[in-house]
Specification:
6-stranded parallel beta sheet; 3 domains; transcription cis-regulatory region binding; 7-stranded mixed beta sheet; Peripla_BP_I; alpha/beta
């Protein structure tokens, strides 16, 4: 064949059959001679022919497209999450469609966008990544039987929706406890926005570690940031200017805020970790290259991405019919087998462990806990 997109007509010519016969094979119609069917499928594989996913899905009664709904596409955690998702999708008969609904407002309800996506009927299920205030609407879709998994959280995440997240409280507890073990007693905490459940959980982990050490939380040492470097700078400036006795350590609820903490401490002529120790949260790639290298809590973002899409695929397809890698015969078997999504009897909640990555910014020997 000449180079270019292979069409159904091309396949028909190579097989010596009509275009209608090829369409019947693609739609798994019974009125095709078995030998003819086998010859057509073999030619498709040889020529690298792939029918339109959307068209073939609609023809077969089920889409082979998975929708990933991302509300904050520029968030630095997203690439690692998507890498885990892509690894699983690549070994499945599905393709991923990314829906970005970022509008610079994490508190906006994107229910109308979700409804428009569902109206196309092109996606077999949705993975909602940091869904914002749309979580309640997503829970309603689950109750109606639509396959959906939520990646991470909002405040009071619905209990009747399947989700994958990390143990944020344990991660914050480990970070604060590590600072306590280094001899710090005056530890400040810069929270994330309080509409996020992760902010509340990380604050609770901080409080639990202090309580265990017999230290009361000092309200003046707890400030609310915005997960961004500017929030870290503003809160650190307040801690250094307004307090008569500055903290000896600062635990920021995100690495991005920790970057703002590091730069502000330097601007005030102080040193990290000699004057003030710093710990962040997330372990995004740049953190190991910060000056000094940032101690932080690592979220298993790659694994979280994998587990979330695996959970969604289990809802859409019974495990026994998963076929890898994709080819025409397996796709047709899949099309025949998946009459309806198999939703779990009860929502599945997966909480993965975090780990503390110790680097220079807290003044301890570098290692992972």
């Amino acid at each position: 064949m000449t180079t270019g997109k292979i069409t159904i007509q091309d396949i028909a010519q190579l097989a010596g059959v009509s275009k209608t016969t090829v369409s019947r094979v693609l739609n798994q119609r019974p009125d095709v001679n078995p030998e003819t069917r086998e010859r057509i499928l073999q030619i498709m594989d040889q020529q690298g022919f792939f029918p339109s996913l959307a068209a073939s899905g609609l023809a077969g009664g089920r889409s082979r497209l998975i929708g990933a709904l991302v509300s904050v596409i520029h968030w630095p955690l997203i690439p690692e999450i998507m890498r885990g998702i892509a690894e699983v999708i690549d070994q499945s008969p599905y393709e991923l469609v990314l829906y970005s609904v970022n509008a610079g407002n994490d508190q906006k309800d994107y229910s109308d966008v979700i409804e428009r996506i569902l109206a196309t009927k092109l996606t077999a299920g949705i993975l909602a990544i940091y869904p914002g205030q749309s979580a309640a609407h997503l829970a309603e879709l689950c109750r109606e039987g639509f396959p959906l998994v939520m990646f991470d959280d909002q405040i009071n995440p619905p209990e009747d929706i399947s989700w994958v997240g990390a143990d944020q409280k344990a991660g914050a507890y480990a970070a604060t406890r590590h600072l306590l073990q280094q001899g710090h007693r005056r530890i400040a905490h810069i929270q994330g926005p309080l509409q996020f459940q992760v902010s509340l959980d990380r604050y609770q982990g901080y409080c639990d570690a202090l309580a265990e050490a017999g230290i009361e939380v000092e309200p003046e040492l707890v400030l609310q940031g915005d997960f961004m470097p500017t929030g870290g700078k503003e809160c650190t400036t307040q801690l250094l200017q307004a307090l008569e006795k500055r903290p000896t350590a600062i635990f920021a609820a995100s690495d991005l805020m920790a970057y703002g903490v590091l730069s502000t401490i330097t601007e005030y002529g102080l040193r990290v970790p000699e004057d003030i120790a710093v710990i962040g949260y997330d372990d995004i790639p740049f953190s190991r290259h910060a000056q000094p290298a940032l101690t932080t809590v690592r979220q298993p973002l790659h694994e979280m991405g994998k587990r979330s899409i695996e959970l969604l695929l289990q809802m859409i397809d019974p495990p026994e019919i998963k076929v890898r890698p994709w080819n025409h015969k397996s796709a047709l078997r899949l099309q025949d087998a998946m009459a309806a999504p198999v939703l779990p009897a009860s929502p599945v909640h997966i909480k993965l462990s975090t780990s503390l990555v110790v680097r220079a910014s807290c003044g301890a020997t570098q290692h992972s806990l």
